[in-house]
Amino acid sequence: MIVSAVQMDVRTREVRTNVETAYRHIQEAARRGSRVVLLPEMWNTGFSYPDLADVARGSYGPTLTFLIETARETKTWLVGTIPEPSDSGVYNAMHWVSPNGEVVAWYRKAHLFTPTAEGEFFVAGSTCEPVTTDFGRAGGLICFDIRFPEMARRLTLAGAAFLFVPAQFPHPRDAHWETLLRARAIENQVWVIAANRVGESGKLAYFGKSMVVDPWGEIIECEEGERERVLTAEVEPGMVDDVRRRLPCARRPDIYGDLEPRRGE
User: Fold this and answer.
1) Which of 30, 42, 121, 265 matches a 20 to 30 Å C-alpha distance to 233?
2) What is the H or E stretch that residue 264 is in?
3) Is 150 a catalytic residue?
4) Of 41, 84, 221, 223, catalytic
5) Of 118, 128, 143, 223, which one is the catalytic site residue?
């Protein structure tokens, strides 16, 4: 299965420019035969503080329509986060749009990055469930979420073989980025596909380094340069079971607790 991660600059509040950029990259990914295309975090608006709520209300509907139409046109799964307005506030929401243009699921960022004021402008999500797709079970982790290993483990125990990570991860934490992504792949024996943005926003500069990590924790594709690029790699879903057979990791929830979904959840 071929997957692509879009590494792009995100222009704050410039929705039309961002949509045009994303469309160009999605088209390129589709030409390469990608089945799934991952866009970075908040790819359509950026973190448009302090008027995030107004920007979210004006951009959400048109952006979702764009994703639906483009997924249908390119026959790809499109995954990425956009600001979602609601009665409770604005969520940083990861939408899963199928090749037939159906929004089959969404995940709202659970861990808000308070050093950059996310907690002041966003409402935190409260669910952690994988998505059933035609290529297998998959989970979403949004940027800061990768620092919480129990979340990735919960998704894996619920059947996820792929973890998709849209992000706006800035300098100087590029070593953290790589280490955390590889750790999530190694400890859960899953594929990790990550799309990080490039460019600058305010005082922050973003390093990109989008990558695909296999269930052994090996980086099979990575963009080291701080430039826009469609990163494409072939992933083998069967490798998850193969790695787990070769290196079985028997858990001991009797000692440290159990993160598996309970009946009725």
Assistant:
1) 42
2) none
3) no
4) 41
5) 143
